[in-house]
Amino acid sequence: MIKESRQLKAQYDYYFLREYRFRYWLLVVDNHFFDQYYFFLEKQKLGTALLHSHELLAIPRDKALYEHVLADLHSFSALTIYYRNTHQLIHPTRDITNDPIHGHG
C-alpha cells in the first residue's frame, strides 16, 4: 500500500465509528478549482437532515495515483462511493427572486 492509501485508511478507521442508526457513505470529489481529488466520509443519523462530512485525503490530480488509491480504498471498504465533479456543481437551494430586507426585489 502506498503512503497516500495508508493515510486514507488511517483517517477512515478514525472517523468510521459504526454508530447505531447512522448511515455512512464515501464521496470522491474531482476538484478542478484546486486541481486535486478529495476523499470524504459522510454520515447521517437516520431520521434527521443533519449531515457530517469528514475529509479523509486530498491528492493531486494524477490519474494513475487516483486509480491506485481508489483500488486500495475498495480493498478495505465496502461503503457506497458517490462521485462529484466541480464542473457539475450542485445548486443546493432555490434562487432568491424577492428579498425586500436585503434589497433583492
Secondary structure topology:
Layout: H1 3-15, E1 22-31, E2 36-45, E3 51-60, H2 63-76, E4 81-85
Parallel strand pairs: 1-4
Antiparallel strand pairs: 1-2, 2-3
Helix pairs in contact: 1-2
Question: Would you write up a description of this structure?
Answer:
The structure is a single chain. The protein is an alpha+beta fold and 105 residues long. 26% of the residues lie in helices and 33% in strands. It contains 2 helices and 4 strands. It has helices at 3-15, 63-76; strands at 22-31, 36-45, 51-60, 81-85. It has a 4-stranded mixed β-sheet, with helices on one face. Helix 1 crosses helix 2. It is flat. The mean pLDDT is 89.
Total number of strands:
4
End-to-end Cα distance, whole Å, is 57 Å
Q: In percent, how much strand structure appears in the residues?
A: 25-35%
Biggest sheet, spatial arrangement of strands: 3-2-1-4
Structural class: alpha+beta
Topology as H/E string? HEEEHE
Uncertain regions spanning at least 5 consecutive residues: none
What's the Cα radius of gyration? 17 Å
Helix content: 25-40%
Q: State the major sheet.
A: 4 strands, mixed
Bulk shape: flat
Mean pLDDT: 89
Count of runs of 4 or more consecutive helical residues: 2
